[in-house]
């Protein structure tokens, strides 16, 4: 006859190969979880503000060109708006991919390499994006834009 005993859930021991968090405290993961929620809310505001000002105000999508970006980035407010959107989107996405890598990469070495590549790519994109935003110069030699004369 079969036993009718049931083990209460989550009372069993976690097998060592599945317990990746045994050496870390929960502080970092809790901070990362909280960052995802807060950055997601802020990103919604930043992205909708970006879409409304670029696509709905003025001439709409037909007015978005090099001159439009040059005029927008001449104002420090829009530089910092786009910078905040870039940084938050990149860090939000990186944190999400880090979580996916931790969940699906079984080998420690594989996880380490995947996260290393992820962090390097993130750093390069953030650095290049920041440089573009703050060093953007609409005055190309030979330009006929009014702001260059």
UniProtKB/TrEMBL annotation:
Pfam family, one: Sdh_cyt
This protein's record includes keyword Transferase: no
Chain ranges passing through the membrane: 30-57, 77-97, 117-136
Gene3D superfamilies: Fumarate reductase/succinate dehydrogenase, transmembrane subunit
The entry's keywords: Heme, Iron, Membrane, Metal-binding, Transmembrane, Transmembrane helix
GO terms of molecular function: metal ion binding
Superkingdom to which the source organism belongs: Bacteria
The protein's name in its UniProt record: Succinate dehydrogenase
The organism's taxonomic lineage, starting at the top: Bacteria, Bacillati, Actinomycetota, Actinomycetes, Micrococcales
């Amino acid at each position: 006859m079969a036993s009718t005993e049931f083990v209460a859930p989550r009372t069993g021991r976690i097998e060592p190969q599945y317990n990746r968090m045994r050496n870390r405290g929960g502080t970092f993961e809790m901070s990362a979880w909280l960052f995802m929620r807060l950055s997601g809310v802020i990103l919604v505001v930043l992205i909708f503000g970006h879409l409304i000002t670029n696509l709905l105000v003025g001439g709409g999508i037909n007015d978005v060109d090099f001159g439009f970006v040059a005029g927008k980035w001449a104002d420090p407010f829009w530089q910092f708006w786009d910078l905040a959107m870039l940084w938050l989107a990149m860090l939000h996405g990186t944190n999400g991919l880090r979580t996916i890598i931790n969940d699906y990469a079984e080998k420690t070495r594989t996880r380490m390499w995947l996260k290393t590549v992820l962090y390097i790519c993130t750093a390069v994109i953030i650095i290049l994006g920041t440089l573009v935003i703050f060093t953007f110069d609409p005055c190309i030699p030979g330009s006929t834009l009014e702001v260059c004369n």
